[in-house]
Amino acid sequence: MTIKPLVLATLLAVAAVSSISCASTRTSEGTGEYVDDTVITAKVKSAFLAEEGLKVAEINVETFKGVVQLSGFINSRADADRAIALARGISGVTSVKDDMRIK
Fold first, then answer.
1. How many helical (H) and strand (E) elements, i.e. helices and strands, does the chain have?
2. Residue 66's beta-bridge partner residues?
């Protein structure tokens, strides 16, 4: 009968450690946040593809905790403004950082 409490305690310890390792910190994402950011990145890229005249191959999109960072080379400030507006319009985006450079 002493094995059951030992097994239960071990399972509880494993569950506690597992849940802590999946939690987010200021500098790292939890599992759920990573999946959310991946979805946001895909939605931003899809919006760029649907926008005619925007060279999406030259715009890199990265998302961390809902903050979208756009980088790469673009043809004009108007293209940058259009990309930023599209990214801001995506559900889940909290802010957009503009690191794009005009060629």
1. 3, 3
2. none
Q: How many residues does the chain have?
A: 103
Closest CA to 63 of 50, 78, 45: 45
Which residues does 23 contact at the CB level (< 8 Å), separation at least 6?
Answer: 30
**pLDDT digits 0-9 by tens, 86-98:** 999 999 999 999 9
Record the pTM: 0.68
Q: Report the CATH number that the domain containing residue 79 is assigned in CATH.
A: 3.30.1340.30
Domain, as residue range, for 39: 25-102
Residues 76, 6: Cα–Cα separation, whole Å: 66
Residue 90, CA distances (Å) to 26, 31, 41, 66 in order:
23, 21, 9, 10
**Cβ distance 60 to 51 under 8 Å?**
no
Domain count, the chain: 1
DSSP letter, residue 16: H
